[in-house]
Amino acid sequence: MTQKQWIGYSKPLIFLLLCLPTVWLVLSAYQQNLGADPAKKLVDETGLWALRILLLSLAMTPFRYWTGSGVWLHYRRMLGLFAFYYVVLHLLSYTFLLFGANWSYLQQELTKRPYIIVGFSAFLLLIPLALTSTKNWQRRLGQRWRKLHQLVYLIALLAMLHVIWLKKLGVWAVWPYALCLFILLAERIRQYQLKQQNSFK
Fold first, then answer.
1. Residue 116: per-residue pLDDT
2. 39-60 burial, b if ≥16 CB within 10 A, otherwise e?
3. Disulfide-capable partner of 62 in 7, 75, 150, 187 (CB 3.0 to 4.6 Å)?
4. Rg of the Cα trace of the chain?
5. Which domain holds residue 10?
6. In which band, very low, low, confident or very high, does the pLDDT at 108 lie, cut at 50, 70 and 90?
């Protein structure tokens, strides 16, 4: 099987896998299996899935370096868009299910709670990345596209800080995600240093 065929077969499968958390949440809500506070459960789960998929999208470039194969990069856009999708679900669940679209209360929450400010900032930064994720935008923006999409690392840090503050237990409550982000950022820094060294040779 050629690489092109592998990508053609695997992309629909990955798409379906990324849809499974939504299916599970919808079925759980329909069967009333979301616990004593279904709204909070939906907010928490959509937020965690957004973080998981965001980290997975960040892992595509390191996987290319570690495996020597560029096939991973073909999944990066899909993963990034699904991360944005789950962030939107997270925000909608928080706004309409947890607080019943009480805009005055939400405005107060947005201005006085640091974890909400950080999380909402990450969402705002994700919007231009989602809108410019197509190849057409990549051609139009050129080198600016790459610089714009490097914001994803800042977004990941903000998302991690949001989850840590939200859990109120510090980094230990989310240490697997924090460890993954640390490894991915360390690899990014290592690759940058290697490129800098090679440019001076």
1. 87
2. bebbbbbbbbbbbbbbbbbbbb
3. 187
4. 19
5. 3-199
6. confident
